[in-house]
Amino acid sequence: MVTKGDATRTLILEHASGVAARDGLEALSIGKLAQDLSLSKSGLFAHFGSKEALQLAILEFETERFIAEVLKPALAAPRGVPRLEALFDRYATWALARQKTGGCLFMSASFELDDRPGPARDKLVATERDWLETLAHAVRIAAREGHFSADVDPELAAQELHGIQMAAHHMVRLLGDDEAIPRARRAFTRWLAGYRKP
Amino acid sequence: MVTKGDATRTLILEHASGVAARDGLEALSIGKLAQDLSLSKSGLFAHFGSKEALQLAILEFETERFIAEVLKPALAAPRGVPRLEALFDRYATWALARQKTGGCLFMSASFELDDRPGPARDKLVATERDWLETLAHAVRIAAREGHFSADVDPELAAQELHGIQMAAHHMVRLLGDDEAIPRARRAFTRWLAGYRKP
């Protein structure tokens, strides 16, 4: 059962995750969020307790959304190349949906929190590791299925895939280069071709 | 002639660029910098006038260093593949030298400033565009020299190269995965091989 408290919490986190992606997790202000959402500051404090707890809650919330919108549906695709295609496409859709509202929080937080030890950084590291391991594991399966050469290095291939996504995100959001999206798609096609069994 | 004022300015910018890479350009405080360097706050204001001017000065300073340490020496390498190797190596050395002190400012600022219009963002965009165009042009030359296939897409190849560098930076600094550096080197070797003339 979804209570009124849960619904308010979700509303706050949806808004706050966009603010965090746009302005940074450190720039969050409980007072400003309360104002944005016409809620009382004390009500927001009742939900999250502190800015640090709010930052952690935002990363947990985005991770849950990421699992629901990217991981789960992609892992339902057939093993091998189709699953890798689904992982690439789902992530691209995720990032594109956030293009006008701060971009992918995991990308911006990766550079904001890299030098800020604490629970928020730990949560982000866990999410990013899971993502890279998911990519590496999907590569491993593609080799087992006979789609990729058996000598593929799954961690290397995962890092390359992650790089294709990072560069596209950077070029679209910082440089305003929308051509970076079809270019990333071509880079992915080249990446697949490079590992396909001859 | 280097005046005492120039030397102080350089000292301030060297320190401030590390702080900016670690904590962010927005987190800079002229008061805190003055304290760090045992200088007067009014002295720092005399050099930069405002936090915005300081942010811009830091990006200009890092861009000059980038030109001197990465671009100029790499562009002195022979045309074609050797020059691409020099661009890759020089950037890797640049990022590695900053690994313990906040990483590459251009990477962190790319995600911090993407939603913050202003002169600092404009300067960063110009630097990043120049870098990507330098990479694309070096690819174009590699094709002209007959090292790469003539049908290479220079913008695509530059974006891929940028992605290899971004992913390595992210995995070393956020995830503490030092293996990401030799992996990036292997990704670069695969990238070269993928474009080499058969």
Summarize the structure.
Two copies of one chain form a homodimer. With 198 residues, chain A is an all-alpha fold. The first copy, chain A, is 74% helix and 0% strand.
How would you describe this protein?
Two copies of one chain form a homodimer. In chain A, 74% of the residues lie in helices and 0% in strands. With 198 residues, the first copy, chain A, is an all-alpha fold. The first copy, chain A, has one domain (4-195): Tetracycline Repressor, domain 2, CATH 1.10.357.10. The radius of gyration of chain A is 19 Å and the shape is elongated. The interface between A and B is large, with 46 and 46 residues.
In angstroms, what separates the terminal alpha carbons of chain A? 53 Å
Assembly context of the chains: homodimer
CATH class descriptor of chain A? Mainly Alpha
Helix content of chain A: over 70%
CATH superfamily of chain A: Tetracycline Repressor, domain 2
User: Helix/strand/pairing class of chain A, anyone?
Assistant: mainly alpha
Mean pLDDT over the residues of chain A: 95
Low-confidence stretches of chain A: none
CATH architecture of chain A: Orthogonal Bundle
Radius of gyration of chain A: 19 Å
- The total strand number of chain A stands at 0
Shape of chain A: elongated
The greatest interface between two protein chains, and residues involved on each side, is: A-B, 46 and 46 residues
Could you give a short account of the major beta sheet of chain A? none
How much of the sequence of chain A is in beta strands?
under 5%
Number of domains of chain A: 1
Write down the secondary-structure element order of chain A: HHHHHHHHH
CATH topology of chain A: Tetracycline Repressor, domain 2
Count of DSSP H/I helices of chain A:
9
